[in-house]
Amino acid sequence: MDEGHCGLPTDELVPLAVALLEVPGELIRTALNLELAERTIVADTVGETACVFLAGLYQAEQVIADRIQRLANGKLPWPYIDPERALPWIERRTGLSLAESQVAAIRLALLSKVLVITGGPGVGKTTIVNSILRILAAKGVSLLLCATTGRAAKRMTEATGFEAKTIHRLLEVDPKGGGFKRGSDNPLECDLLVVDETSMVDVLLMQALMKAVPDHAALLIVGDIDQLPSVGPGQVLADVIASGAVPVVRLTEVFRQAAHSRIITSAHQINPGSIPDLSRPEGDSDFYFVQADDPETAVPLIIELVKTRIPQRFGLDPVRDIQVLCPMNRSGVGARSLNIELQAALNPAGERKVERFGWTFAPGDKIMQIENDYDKDVYNGDIGYIDDVDPDAGELIAGFDGRSVTYGFGELDKLVPAYAATIHKSQGSEYPAVVIPVLTQHYAMLQRNLLYTGVTRGKRLVVLVGQKKAVAIAVRNVSGRQRWSKLNEWLAVSAMHHQLRTVTA
């Protein structure tokens, strides 16, 4: 599960278990058979490969496939909308002229019970979703919007003008029991559910969401298939798209205003496996590569960029606007050691400070919450700033998006300094500027989708610091993609069954 799998090939599982537990293979085989008999695990195949699945994840993928198929086969929850009238209307309302690819996507969405829209930055996903929502809202269709993280939901709200919630909040987490109040027996009330940043949704969360969508509703799944897959197990978005079971709009055309951005053009070069242009840009740009051959050179360079060079040249605040994103946590240019260095350079602690769990926290520090806290209403990956540390009361007070949140000193294991963070933790976020160390020391983590995700987090500025060779390694390495899951097959099978039923009917 930690590596994102729902199951593993039996031939891999047994030697891994032998090595981990240091017991003979026969013993593992016996235990495996007992677990299979008790149904805590399930044996099945992925393609031709014999695999063993955790029962909960196996069932979750079946439920998702079954629910998506059931939704897709229902009738539309709104009366027929004539695209020939709706499209000119939306162009007048928004003052945008829609491209052919966008027109085709909106037409399809008005006629589809389940639809996937995927594409990278600058391809107009937001414009399409906006247009669909405004056309349907004008027809009195009830809408619900959600995304995995608080930040992604906030971005969606700002972009569309319709309130978006996190999936957890939409499903109404029960802080006591840990489950959700919304489900098949207490479904959501909507005619259309829009899920954004779906690349981040894992199998268990998708199962909970699909159970809560009422049968009559339509479903619009939006996401970027080339970003890092979810932290949790499965590859929901990739599997839904690969299955061919529901219509998919793949947007590839980068629009004019976005084509001027080297951040966006670089992301679209990295994606198919081309090395982006790392030469020095003429005049001002939003994408730079700065050479550093080893951690000893890279660390002081990153500090200088964040503290002085970027703020002077671009007028950005070093703490609030610039985010260092690392391929990994450990190593000299990992998030952990860079956090200590950047904290010392940008906000050296005075008298009022607290040291807990290996970190120092002081007023002015940038911090990140690293687990969901439903009572405090702060979620994994949320970034805040420390307002005060009160040693007498044993409390730390931090601001998250203008809200004040209090932590007892014993709760500080939920926080880490956030001057530097891993690219994984940045999923679903955007920052005015990002600085990304890319060195061959990170060899194990240098993957195309990791670099792509990091680069696409920057809105106004992206600076890569490191070696061209390391960038080339990352761009060429697609190995991070293979996950063992069966959702793709379940969907394809249920789609086939449905076609047979329709044909025989």
Largest sheet: 6 strands, parallel
Task: Give the number of DSSP strands.
Answer: 21
N-C termini distance: 41 Å
Helix content, binned percent: 25-40%
Bulk shape? globular
Average pLDDT number: 94
Fraction of residues in β-strands? 15-25%
What's the total helix number?
Answer: 17
Please tell me how large the radius of gyration is: 24 Å
Helix- and strand-based class?
A: alpha/beta
Major sheet strand order: 6-5-7-8-4-9
Low-confidence stretches: none
Give structural notes.
This protein is 39% helix and 21% strand. The protein has 17 helices and 21 strands. The protein has helices at 10-21, 25-38, 55-72, 83-94, 100-111, 125-138, 150-160, 167-170, 203-212, 236-243, 256-259, 262-270, 295-314, 335-346, 448-455, 468-476, 487-504, and strands spanning 7-9, 41-46, 49-54, 114-119, 143-147, 164-166, 192-196, 218-223, 248-251, 287-291, 322-326, 354-356, 359-361, 366-369, 383-390, 395-400, 403-408, 415-417, 420-422, 431-438, 458-466. A six-stranded parallel β-sheet has the order 6-5-7-8-4-9, with helices on both faces. It has a five-stranded parallel β-sheet with strand order 10-21-20-11-19. Strands 17-16-15-14-18 form a five-stranded antiparallel β-sheet. Strand 12 (354-356) and strand 13 (359-361) form a beta hairpin. Helix 3 (55-72) packs parallel to helix 17 (487-504) and helix 5 (100-111) packs across helix 6 (125-138). It starts with 6 loop residues before the first strand and ends with a helix.
